[in-house]
Amino acid sequence: MNHNFTSVQNIYIICGKTDMRKGIDGLATIIQDSFELDPYSDSIFLFSGWSKDRYKCLYFDGDGFAMLYKRLDNGKLQWPKDENEVRSLSQQELRRLLEGLSLQQSKAIAKSVKGIF
């Protein structure tokens, strides 16, 4: 499977804690039953567990599901805590989240225009 995920129509983050023992079927059930979304749509769904140092990504590519599981060696993700919420993310927000940055920060720190120091 070689897919360019920058062209995916929707990126959803499942906020709160997910049981990371769940596999593809369990995560697809959460997407359908808890959030009334279609796991077969052109969407990426992101899940994280208690420790926030790992996440799973679920994607349907047209002929089957792909699941990415990543554990960070250092640091933790700034994962939103609301257990009953799903959020739609932009590509930029996805990059920020996976780099360990907060989704709540609305803009970058302003650069000084006066000079170097």
UniProtKB/TrEMBL annotation:
<dbReference type="Pfam" id="PF05717">
    <property type="entry name" value="TnpB_IS66"/>
</dbReference>
<protein>
    <submittedName>
        <fullName>Transposase</fullName>
    </submittedName>
</protein>
<dbReference type="InterPro" id="IPR008878">
    <property type="entry name" value="Transposase_IS66_Orf2"/>
</dbReference>
